[in-house]
Amino acid sequence: MRTQVSQTSLSAYRSLSTAALTGTEMEVMAVMNDGVARTRRQIADELGWRDGPTCGRCNSLVAKKALISVGGQKNPESNKYAELLQIPPNNPQGVLFQ
Q1: What average pLDDT does this structure show over 16-28?
Q2: 2, 52, 75, 86: least buried by Cβ within 10 Å?
Q3: CB within 8 A of 27, min separation 6: which ones?
C-alpha cells in the first residue's frame, strides 16, 4: 500500500463520480419509481431476488442518496421493525411551504 501519494492524485481520485448507478441498482429504482415506500424484503419479493443482494443494492442507493429512509414497518412474521425506503422528493424544502 502506498503511503506517499501526491495531493493531485488524491484530489483526482476523490473527484471521481460515484453517482452512476449499476444495472441492478437501476432495477431497484425501477421498482421504487411509483413513489411507494417499501422495506428491503418487499423490494426483494417484487424483484424475485434473495434478501442479501437486495440489501446490498439498497444500502448503496441510500449511500448515493438515491433512496431515503422514511420510517419503519413491523414485520408480522418476526415482530421486528424494518426500515422503509423511498425515493426522496424533488423539492424537499418546498414541502415546508405548502
Answers
A1: 79
A2: 2
A3: 47, 57
pLDDT digits 0-9 by tens, 57-81: 999 999 988 899 998 998 888 889 9
Distance separating alpha carbons of residues 52 and 13, to the nearest angstrom: 29
**Cell triple for 44:** 426483494
Distance in angstroms (rounded) separating the CA atoms of residues 54 and 47 = 9
Residue 97 to residue 84: CA distance in whole angstroms: 25
Instruction: Indicate the helix (H) or strand (E) that contains 70.
Output: strand 68-74
pLDDT on residue 77: 82
What residues pair up with 82 in beta bridges, in sequence order?
A: 73
Q: β-strands 81-86, 68-74: how paired? A: antiparallel
Length of the chain: 98
d(CA 26, CA 46): 14
Residue 86: the pLDDT is 93
